[in-house]
Amino acid sequence: MRRCDVLVIGSGMAGLMCALSLPEKMKVTVLSKTPLPAGSTYHAQGGIAAVSSEEDSVEMHLADTVRAGAGLVDRNAAMEIIKRGKPLIDALKSYGIPLAGAGSGTAVLEGGHSFRRVLHYYDRTGRFISRRLAQICRARGNITIIERAFAINLITASRMAPEAASGPGDRCLGAYVLLEGVVETFLAGETVIATGGAGKAYRYTSNDDSTTGDGIAMAYRAGLPVRNMEFYQFHPTCLFHPDYRNFLITESLRGDGARLVDHEGRRFMEMYDPERMELAPRDVVARAIDSHMKNSGMDHVYLDATALGEDFLRSHFPEVTCGVLRAGIVPWETPIPVVPAAHYCVGGVVAEVDGTTAMKGLRVIGEAASTGLHGANRLGSNSLLEAGVMGMEAAKSIHGGIAGQPEVPVRGWFYGRARPLQESVLVDHSWASLRSVMWDYVGIVRTDKRLRRALRLLEVLSEETEEDYWNLLPSVELLELRNLCTVSTLMTKSALRRRESRGLHYLLDCPDTSPTPRDTVLRKGIS
Length: 527
Ligand code: FAD
Ligand code: SIN
Prior knowledge:
Oligomer: single chain
Low-confidence stretches: none
Largest sheet: 7 strands, mixed
CATH architecture of the largest domain: 3-Layer(bba) Sandwich
CATH topology of the largest domain: FAD/NAD(P)-binding domain
Bound molecules: flavin-adenine dinucleotide, succinic acid
Distance between the termini: 35 Å
Shape: globular
Number of strands: 17
CATH class of the largest domain: Alpha Beta
CATH superfamily of the largest domain: FAD/NAD(P)-binding domain
Strand content: 15-25%
Number of helices: 17
Number of domains: 3
Mean pLDDT: 94
């Protein structure tokens, strides 16, 4: 058994900011199922939305966030996070991560923002942040980073001793972790889930392969409430190319004048949102593209950045420019073929701004959490802000005192008669089926019929996967599939519950928005 004061599961912006902000007297272990730098953080292009100019204000940023969130933003949580943007940017600067737009250089504009407030490092913001934070963490004597360590399940007092209270009275004691083929027991005074989103539930996504909703599934299994899982954000512009599927074309390009056009060169946003055009919020732009593709029978549209010219593209958007050149497209000569793709998990485990959850000893931060900041639709570049602020706030409140550990005997992992997975094809096939089900039936535009069909198919996949989970030795591919079955089912059930269209949830059977906004909350065994 391994012991530490704080166990951080995940090494993106949220996890690393939390680890770094903890006092050096605390023994901190950071687990990452992938080598560092890792997660969606590494791929972030646009930047961090934060108020840094006298002409801007936290009230304006809040107003934009509330407008995008379509009636479901928790104003108090949003204000808490937005006003901590400046301290976050200052902390990043102190770690050697100065962002353009904060003091020097120009901030960029993204859809739904009424002000140029996205602070960035060219279009390589996430890469810069991840590398630097990982480097500083590695140099800290109190932080141990363990790569290729896959957290399987939370260890809770109620599971170890049936007489211990379950539900809100329960306590998290740590996690079982798959490390080099063996399941190890990690015990901690405080466990922090920072495992990111679940984009791999969909066939087309901007996320990398590690984004499988593990933390959300783990927390749900342990009895925590999850909120608003029906709201999955689709980024309007991912590169449409057979060999480069996950490559994002940052929204800042549209902020600087790139236009969406169809195969006839028509600027089709005129038909869908003539006022805001390409800079309408993401749900509006993604739906417009989806609808235009369906109406025209085309499988993609184009982002025309030719007017920006080679010099500007190379100097301001080196990441996008190199990426599309690699795919054989010269962006100052020809429009870039693009499609919408699953991008951000707006829902998550119900948590306060400092990550506090309904379970003692467990915090959830970053994309895996639902604080209420995003409501029914996330405003671009508000998520790195949320991840960084939550990491810092979680550390601050953990510093304030770790609750005492109950005297509960903890068992090691029980292997039973499990045998090794011999037919990987079964897992691969189920995963491919799941991603098709989610893309075709729980996508940008939904109907009751498609959602009900998705739920039935997911039930079959979940049943088969659960059987394998109990009979086979744990493997990363099987565990990820199991977690994706859980989060996809949560998304579909939540979508069926919402009898209206709001924000990212667009249901053809109920196209109107209800006058009374409500959260969808699901909890194991209760709903
Ligand atoms: P992540 O950065 O995703 O990190 C999750 C970590 O958890 C990884 O280290 C992973 O290995 C680890 N992990 C997962 N499961 C397990 C497990 N079972 N055991 C152990 N480790 C595990 N947002 C913005 O605000 N601005 C942007 O410009 C922006 N651009 C984006 C561009 C792209 C292409 C993508 C995909 C997202 C973008 N986003 C952007 C969203 C933003 O990057 C993410 O919301 C944010 O980085 C999430 O941070 P996180 O720390 O919560 O999770
Ligand atoms: C982008 O750069 O377009 C992505 C920004 C985000 O997801 O917040």
